[in-house]
Structures are given as C-alpha cells and as structure tokens.
Design a protein that fits this description.
11-stranded mixed β-sheet, D-Maltodextrin-Binding Protein, domain 2, 442 residues, transport, globular, maltose binding, 11 strands, 2 domains, alpha+beta
Amino acid sequence: MRKVSRAALLCVAAAVSLTACAAGAGKSDQAGGLAAAPGKDDKFTLTVWSNYSGREQDEVTKALESFKKKYPNAEIKHEGSQDDDKITAGIRSGNPPDVALSFTTDNIGQFCSSGSFQDLKPYIDRDKVDLNQIPDAVRSYTEYKGNRCAMPMLNDVYGLYFNKELLAAAGITTAPKTTAELLDFAKRTTKKAPDGSIEVAGFLPTMLFYANRPPIWAPNFGAKWAGPDGKSSLATPEWAEMLKFQKELVDFYGFDNLERFRAGLGQEYSTDHAFHQQKIAMMIDGEYRTAFLKDQAPNVKFGTAPFPTIKPELYGTGFTTGTIMGVPKGAKNAGAAWELIKHLSFDTDTIVTLSNGIKNIPSTKAALADPRLEVDENFKTFIDLAKSDKLQGNPVTPIGDAHIKAIGDFATSWQSGKVTDLMAGLKDVDKQIDDEIAKSGK
C-alpha cells in the first residue's frame, strides 16, 4: 500500500529505469544535449521500481502498461518495494535508473539543487508542454527555486475524517469548522474508563503520529514556513496558536495517559488503525483513506470535510503533496524517460484510470473535471479542495525534511512539557533551520 506521499509522508519512493534496445531511444537530438524520444516502433525495456505493493502496485502496473499505446514495442517490468535510498545509491554508483518516482516530496529541494534529478525545463520547452494544466499548489512542490526537476503523478489532499456514530452519541450532528469546535467536539467524544485511562479519544493531537505532521497542519492555522527574506519564520503567532491548540488537548488527556493510549494503537497502514477500530472519533488524513476504510473497515460509518481552521476565512484550505517523477543524473535513456514522465503526467485516460484505482487525486485540471472520475460523497470533499485555490504544497528547501523534523521534534518537547517558553523555542528552531540551509550552500 502506498504510504505518503502519504503523509507519509513516510519517506518512501520509487524509481523507473529504461534500457533502450534500439537506436534512437536515448540519443541527443540537439546541441543542448536533450535526448530524442524513441521512435514509435523502437524496442526498449522499462524497468520500474516503486514502493507500491499489493493492490496499488497492480494498478500502477496497469498505468505503466498504457504507455504501450504510444510505444507498442516497449517492455514493462514493474518491481515494488524500492525507496529513495536505492535511487541515491544508484546515482552515486553511476548506475541510476532512468526515471525515479518518489513519494517523498520533502526531498525535492535536494533533488533539484544537487542535480540528482535533471532539469526538465528544456524538454518542457522543446515539447511546448503547458504547465498551466497542473494546479498551482501541485506545481509548487515539484520544483525548487525555478528548477523544475520533477513532474507530478497524482496527488494527495488532506482533510477531516469523523465517525458519524461517535459524534451522534455525543449529540453532535455536524462536522467542526473551527479549531474551537474541534477542541469542544474532541472533549465531548472522548471516553475514559473508571481508572481514567482513555478508551476512545475524540481527537489525537500527538505531533508526528499518523498524519499529524507540521506541513499538513500549518495551512489550517495560516502558518508559513518562511518570511519575505526567505529565512525560516516559525516564531510567529500562527505557529504559536497551532502548538497551543495541540497542547491544550494534550493537557486535557494528560501527556502520560495519552502516550499509554497511543502505544496501544495500530499502525497507520494496517487494519488496526485507530480510526478503523473506532478508537478515535476524528482525525486528519488524506483522500486515500476512503479506499482503506472501504476495504479494511466497511462497517465504520464516517464522513469527511475540510479540516477545521483557526479563522473562519481560512476554512476550505488544506495541504497537498504527491508522487514526484524525475530523471536522475547519469540516466542512460533520458529521452525515453521523459516520454514516460510526460505520459504519466498528462495523459487524461491514464490519470483518471489510476486515480479510480488507488483513490488518489488527479494532478491535472482536465482529469479533475473528467466525468469518468469516480467520486462519492466522501471523496468529493477532497476533489473540491483540489479544485480550490486554497491548497498549499509541501515546503521546499535544500535540506530535505530536516526543517520538518526540527519543528516536529520541538512540538513533541512542547507537548510533553519539557519546553515552557514557546516563542523562545520557536526562535531557536528558526536558527537551527537557517543554519542547516546555510551549511548546505544552496
């Protein structure tokens, strides 16, 4: 099962290597060094590495096979359970794949600034590709400082999931729209045993648990990662309000009590997920969860909505991320690689079919509007968010996810009570991030 781009946002990735078996599949076709596209009848092999598995890997294989409509003599080999470490090792050893698919958008700054992923703009210019087909927020997390070294293949959008029965039992009939309502509803839907231990948590505020990652939370509080000068800007009222909200809920449960409860919960992508087991009433998660619930917990009656915001005018905002595709440095068949990337990025039939198969959000405007897209009531929440202009992409820096880890670790210390001066602590995190970026030289 695909994990973040899922938020995973767990550092996972994929790679595609193409090996030409006919002349012309990877030759340079102009002085700038751009590789020519393979001829329609050329024979070449595409070996695909990805971190997909099971049902999702099968659906991605179907999408890859659709490339044969343009190149019928292409041979497709799809191998799952690959990651960014293997891509990096391949580049360093001089034996990289020709195309890399990564779920880890946190790394786009490193990929682009280091040259690990080649600049795709020359190909885009040559082929007159219209990037306006891609929503702005999605475009933002596939490039770094004007260097477009990657393209998107579907994307994820995050919102609120709520258990209808647990809310109804507490006398709640609508989803919360503000963080004040979320706090109230979380307290009202929490159930404790006679000894005070938590049986059902209305909402889990623990940072870095499940999809509780700083980039996913930040848009709902209007929190920005950098100021006008480009430096880290976490020591702001918006970040402070976000962390205060989480701390108030942690204090309601009691940090140690909450940790004991959390320790007994299932893994994020297992059938024992806390929401599947009805041990939490509300959570933040991506659209892909609708498919997991249908498959793993069909008896859970749930609804979806935009995540609550601290200010009413922010309601309808959210976070987006997704799979990125690039041509690694040293790829032997960049021409064929770019053709595959272009196909997966813009072929509407392929995008819609894959979106229906793994329940991710289409990454082009045409596919979002396609009538063949399967949209039920709960999935519609995320489609509507994707069509809005309020989404924010992943914060991109040349230090990978170090900035995210820095604020995530600080939030954990804050929630546990180890940090007492919030603003001073946030200033320290800003300095830590700025220092790391400065040391990167990029």
